[in-house]
Amino acid sequence: xKIRCIGGGPAAxxxxxxxxxxxxxxxxxxxxxxxxxxxWGFGVVFSDETMExxxxxxxxxxxxxxxxxxxxxxxxxxxxxxxFVSTGHxxxxxxxxxxxxxxxxxxxxxxxxxxxxxxxxxxxxxxDADLIVAADGINSFIRRQHADAFGADVVMRPNKFVWLGSDxxxxxxxxxxxxxxxGLWRAHCYQYMPGTxxxxxECTEATxxxxxxxxxxxxxxxxxxxxVFAGELDGAKLVSNxxxxxxxxxxxxxxxxxxxIVLLGDALHTAHFSIGSGTKLAMEDGIALANALExxxxxxxxxxxxxxxxxxVVDSLQRAAQVSMEWFEETERYAERMAPRxxxxxxxxxxxxxxxxxxxxxxxxFVEQADTWVAEQAFAAVGRPRPEGKAPxxxxxxxxxxxxxxxxxxxxxxxxxxxxxDGVVGDWHLVHLGSRAIGGAGLVLTEMTCVGPxxxxxxxxxxxxxxxxxxxxxxxxxxxxxxSQAKVGLQIGHAGxxxxxxxxxxxxxxxxxxxxxxVIAPSAIPYQAFCHRPREMTRADMxxxxxxxxAAARRAAAAGFDLLELHMAHGYLLSTFLSPLTNRRGDAYGxxxxxxxxxxxxxxxxxxxAWPQDxxxxxxxxxxxxxxxxxxxxxxxxxxxxxxxxxxxxVDVSTGQVVGDQEPQYGRLWQLPFSTRLRLEGGMPTMAIGxxxxxxxxxxIIAGGRADLCVLxxxxxxxxxxxxxxxxxxxxxxxxxxxxxxxxxxxTPRWS
Length: 752
Prior knowledge:
Layout lengths: L1 E5 L3 H13 L4 E5 L11 E5 H10 L1 H9 L2 E3 L2 E5 L2 E5 L4 E5 H15 L2 E3 L15 E4 L6 H5 L1 H4 L1 E15 L6 E8 L2 E11 L2 E8 L1 H6 L7 H11 L1 H4 L4 E3 L5 E8 L3 E2 L2 E3 L14 H18 L3 H31 L1 H7 L2 H9 L7 H7 L1 H18 L17 E3 L2 E3 L3 E3 L14 H12 L4 E8 L16 H17 L3 E7 L26 E2 L13 E2 L2 H21 L3 E6 L4 H6 L14 H4 L1 H13 L6 E6 L10 H13 L4 E5 L17 H11 L3 E4 L5 H9 L5 E4 L1 H5 L3 H9 L22
Parallel strand pairs: 1-2, 1-9, 2-8, 5-11, 9-17, 20-21, 20-29, 21-22, 22-25, 23-24, 25-26, 26-27, 27-28, 28-29
Antiparallel strand pairs: 3-7, 4-7, 5-6, 10-13, 10-14, 10-15, 11-12, 12-13, 16-17, 18-19
Helix pairs in contact: 1-4, 1-10, 2-3, 2-10, 3-4, 10-11, 14-15, 16-17, 17-18, 18-21
């Protein structure tokens, strides 16, 4: 096979040595634009875990690479005059140039041809190759020339950074956060060879502009950064290697190959320097492509297998890199609103790949200190002394909303059961909600309970518009109060244009075959082409909806509920007023966000007035429509500010389901960043929702200040006793109902 690699970075070099080792008769050539022994940047970082795949792929280069390592376990965080140390992380750094030299020497030893100073600008010369490997970096001309075929997506991120070096020896991966008159400066530092370190300085565009660095030379940049970090450098110097201020390019590609061209390394994907995985990704690309060629009968099959193997891995790591990158882009948000210890904890768990339990395994002392800090804040806020001894995990700290105190931070999410008869809930709902209350959750929320018969989604939806429904709800509320410590909240709402549809299992969003009722919305726009076209609401319709919600609030109080949640999300009636995609009105209720939120606030005000003042209210919102031109961050800020002024105590932050052609970005904890932003910038307590699965994730959410309560749906369907199982894992026993006292066995704490 004739292989031509354009670009001689870690991806191409490692791939080439592996295929040449497996097939000495193959013609493998690399063409690199840079001279020999020249590269951009200073050091690269690997985790201990990463290196195992390199050991298996090629032992000689593995030994040479690890012999050049500088290894460390600690992370040091310097913030607001305090130093935080976390250990057990297992990283190694090395000089980027030395890494390239090692891999190149090994590739040459195996017979790979390598040409430097090769300024390749087109592929005509290489058309006779069986395989062309495009490893020509972030600014890949090959990717640009075939951008449509690859589905290339390159986005320049907003922050500015400069990649410097230093003669200061760092004994740990070190983060500095220094503020001067121009703004907040972040430094990412690590030693990559004895006595020599990488020193990356990062800031916002606004800070960079205020500092006058837009036209700065390398010497100007070094002088400025040495001044910002003078105390930390303690006489050490910063150095440059063609370092200019730049923006980080996030590179993604929908398709990894086109005809006989395959992308590798930074040409294919980037991962922000804050997680130090760019070189790891590149070299693992090389391993995967070499293996795919070995296993496949044809080149086409090999390239397809390569993408099938790499894509989920790359997507997962890029998701973590994106979240980490955004954390550093928005560090001002955390620096201004978090205590130093919480800030340090949030930094360590920022990518969401390390949660509370992962961090505990690495550094139990640091996590115990975080637990203590969270517990002290929580128990002080509810006016109770903190229990003696070891602090509880964050999810088992209490939380107060007005006159209501929740015993822990776990919430059973509203989940429509479509099992009511004429809006009256029955035994199914008693078991569904009652079992999860006994299961230990601090708060159990009902499914969206409709304020009138025409407010229903389906004929099976729960209601609270008559006395029979109130009595049925009272039975469930009394059971929960009588047999558990859980509090119970009622979510009320109106389906709007999503109403008059079949039961979930009979056809999602499908109109009823018979017995339909009229559906209403702010504008006459159907949810999907096959859905009902709603009638645009009149003022009389609005008045009726306001009255129905207020009456529902009074009935909820009569049923004994502890909390009331108003559903303003997921494309139901109030949500469609908020989104510019679904609200096209030309009157005072359409247009700017101040108009679009007017009617939802009228409803909220009426409900708040009808609901007991000592009991809390929440609102569920969709913080984004996942569609261009939809509900924006600025819209969310305005809505949350207005809700706060109207007496809302906490916002239940969900996303999407507003328009049928949404494009959500799914992943672990995928909705969490919206909760964090609204909580910290809006000063509004939040409930986080969205693929929260593990105990460690939930604890990290609370300890990291990302939300005040954790809302779980599917995990509670799979395990009604999820909270009790968490308590068992952590050795934090919850009281059992009297009938279960005989099976209340002693706990064996996992973290003792």
